[in-house]
Fold Origin recognition complex subunit 5.
Amino acid sequence: MPTLEHPAYPAAALLHLESLVPCRESQVSMLLSVFGERQQFSFPSIFIYGHTSSGKTYVMQTLLNTLQLPHVFVNCVEYFTSRLLLEEILIQLQSGSSETEQASHVPCDTFNDFVRLFKQAVVKRGLQDQTLYIVLDRAEQLREMEANILPAFLRLQELTDSNVTVVLLSEIVWELFRPNVGCLDPLTLYFPDYSIGHLQKILSRNHPPEYTPDFYAAYINILLGVFYMVCRDLKELRHLAALNFSKYCEPVVRGEANERDTRKLWKNIEPHLKKAMQTVYLREISSSQWEHLQHDDGEPGHLKGLSAHTHVELPYYSKFLLIAAYLASYNPVRTDKRFFLKHHGKIRKTNFLKKHEKTSNHLLGPKPFPLDRLLAILYSIVDNRVAPTANIFSQITSLVTLQLLSMAGQNDQLEGPRYKCTVSLDFIRAIAR
């Protein structure tokens, strides 16, 4: 029995729409009841919010295209100024469709110009008797534009005296949008995250034709069992499913197992999914490199990603700064004179180490050090003279941004900043080579 029903639209179109938006039938049904019939006035503005990859953009595009409703679809990240945004809306409206080639340039400097040109375009398109939908994706960017843009879009139906509905799509709640000046609050609609059952249903629809749906559904179930706790993004999960399916099928292709032998298939795919947690999910290597590693049966230690700590490209002095930071984190302060001065005098070995310092510092973890100690070690390990320029200090900030160094405690104005080195000995050895 079909879930979507509306007297204004053909049953065949609604059935097709329902097949295209699985697990979002309740949201689509709500939108259809809000939209009403083509000639009826809808809400002046609708605000749709939800986390990333919850189907907001896809559902709106599919709904408007399937039912062939007149609309304009604009991404506010691409058109990041008010002039670009207003001109793009007019261009799409004049060209008749968001997918056709762009029309001639329409200069639009103010919102008053936009209202005037918008009325002309609506009459030219013959849309006076039906609702026109303006969809603004990534609408949180409107907050960076002029203060009048967002309130004006919320009242566009009133300003133009036209049957137009503005739909705002965003990942943040309306309370973070509301301007300081009075504005018309939109109708809000929430898109919840997909549950594990929804993800199972959606991903299982993409099964290859040469395998049965039950076989592919069992593979998706295994994939979600590994990744669901750390990744709910449908796009990422679809990418991982497509990338690792060939490895899951290997025992079946070689004739070592049948499609129902779940235990053998799981034992074959388990180590590769663990490697995928380290590389593909973090996008440290490309898909082609990952497939090449799978064919070569590479071990996790052979992966050429940051998580494997084999190599990283850094500027010349950043490498020395990282080595100096490692030495400062794992060597006691009282050893600096012995290690980094040529004429350090005699040191009695019996009393040199304190009792607690005889324990390996690698077991105790990195210790914080001040900036002046880091620079002092740097000057002693670099062959040529290094001036303490702004370039050196900016490279320290970059290492913190890359999470190779971390700030330890608050940045005290009197004592200066303190850091910790967060990389391993193997990483430092690779840098030192």
Notes: The longest strand covers residues 164-170.
